[in-house]
């Protein structure tokens, strides 16, 4: 089985998010980057499926050379080779077009993404890849089991799940429950250095959207500490009017 | 030109998020002086669709052909794009629900449209360009996006847009479009629903608990409080990682992001990743025995105390309020 895992290079989950240039540019000063946590789930699943010579795992990232440590980490976790599309990931539409352009005609049986990236949270890439490659896609999978040529997928819905089955190839956006993220071991880290990392140049993609500016959430007023529950209930009922 | 809103159904019924999408699309139609057209796909009774009239929908396209009874994003996206073309829609609105997330990008790609995902307020217009606000960085910030393509697609976050009524009478018009068999390759075997549960992303009140509860056996009091409030239950990441509660209840940066009217956090210290998932809640109540818990810094109301004492009393006090 030939598997492609799409990974995004994102600020660590503990990052404080601030902006520069009159709130038009994300302030990357002091930010540590990681593999998007949902993409780590996708990668762990792919490595699990390919184990024991049952398949190969290619990771792809759209980013400049600064993302290579993240790509090497994915190789250390167990991907066989990597591709970096040498461009700033402008938005989901741009990224999906680059990945689709690389993936078309390569015969991937399974294309995995995280359900969303934790920076722009668009949750778009899985469905866009499905559209661009004319493949079925499931955007938020809680479970993924491959049996022969079939993918059995639990898709998250409000208050429950759909149990789905689809023939490969398919694009799946993975969420918690699909696999436990893997921590690279020393052998993996050493081996990652010599695994192939191919750099390809981007294709042109029309601009449909852009970000004009950012805002930080307004600070809340000071907390009102109360001593007993009756007082709290009165405030929630009379002041906040939420119960 | 028209504004097209896709109306999602759950087992033939329309939920609040569907009406929110309709009311939001109506407001955009009023901004633009365009007509509003709704599209329903699947098996929804006329009487149910007529409820959309309350929010200003005067025309509902009803695609109820037999092969569209089950949701398949690839096929549904093709139908929505076909309807958008027929109506010459300049804006297509969908709900940013779990299904909507699998649908909106496909619709946008089919229409060569930019997608504003997870919009939280009405757009503004600058000539042909549309500006709309969304959350970014997992709720740690907001981004204002400019969509510059001729056709625009917006997916609306649940609980973000206040339902406004503008009563009209909705006419229901059958809509048929060819469905490519290749678009129906995903087979639905079963839908599993926790029937008595309130859906977390759409809940107006959320009762959430963390490691302070010490073990999964202590969740009965959380569920009882949720029950009297008509709330959904949620938890912090360590709790779902430990398997005390299902992943679908995990609220935070790498879980579900919620924006209820009231979020009650019990025994959750308030790590930055958790706060990101709840910061757009309108009112936050924190119950924690540690007065230094970071969660108090972003709370509106707080009780410093032992959850095992406070929560049952709170449940009782709310029950009394509801009974009087």
From TrEMBL, chain A:
Pfam families of this UniProt entry?
Answer: ETF (PF01012)
Q: Which GO terms describe its molecular function?
A: electron transfer activity
Write the record's keywords in alphabetical order, separated by commas.
Answer: Electron transport, Transport
Give the matching CDD domains: ETF_beta (cd01714)
- Database matches in InterPro entries: ETF_a/b_N, ETF_b, ETF_beta_N, Rossmann-like_a/b/a_fold
- Superkingdom of the source species: Bacteria
Domain Electron transfer flavoprotein alpha/beta-subunit N-terminal: where? 23-209
Q: Which family does it belong to?
A: Belongs to the ETF beta-subunit/FixA family.
State the protein's name.
Answer: Electron transfer flavoprotein subunit beta
**Organism listed in the record:** Sphingobacterium humi
UniProtKB/TrEMBL annotation, chain B:
Q: Which residue intervals define the domain Electron transfer flavoprotein alpha/beta-subunit N-terminal in the entry?
A: 3-188
Q: How is the cofactor bound?
A: Binds 1 FAD per dimer.
GO BP? fatty acid beta-oxidation using acyl-CoA dehydrogenase
Q: Which UniProt keywords apply?
A: Electron transport, FAD, Flavoprotein, Transport
Where, by residue number, does FAD bind? 211, 267-274, 288
- Cite the GO molecular-function annotations of the record: electron transfer activity; flavin adenine dinucleotide binding
Q: Which residues form a coiled coil?
A: none
Q: Which domain of life is it from?
A: Bacteria
Report the InterPro entries cross-referenced here: DHS-like_NAD/FAD-binding_dom, ETF_a/b_N, ETF_a/FixB, ETF_asu_C, Rossmann-like_a/b/a_fold
Instruction: Give the protein's cofactors.
Output: FAD
The similarity annotation says: Belongs to the ETF alpha-subunit/FixB family.
Return the protein name: Electron transfer flavoprotein subunit alpha/FixB family protein
